[in-house]
Amino acid sequence: xxxxxxxxxxxxxxxxxxxxxxxxGIVGKQLGKRGVITHDELGTAISKLEAAIVTDxxxxxxxxxxxxxxxxxxxxxxxxxxLAQRSFPFLDMLRAAQxxxxxxxxxx
Length: 108
Prior knowledge:
Strand content: 15-25%
Radius of gyration: 17 Å
Number of domains: 1
Structural class: alpha+beta
Number of strands: 4
Mean pLDDT: 89
């Protein structure tokens, strides 16, 4: 299932439900059929998501050494896409909404 986030300050952001649920959870909301991140909540939501991205980057950097790229007998392992890349369109929307003092909605 797809979830579409909308606000008047940015183009719609469409993502799979599992990613939407994860990102909305990071910012302190629950993904229901309908929901809103009000303009008053955007500062906190942005800070929480940015902090989660920093933590994810740190964790990924610590685990990069566990991949044996280029060693004999070991296959090349690609790192999965990180939170920074997966959340960028959503974070960009939150920042645009904060700048224009509008809400972010889904399920409408």
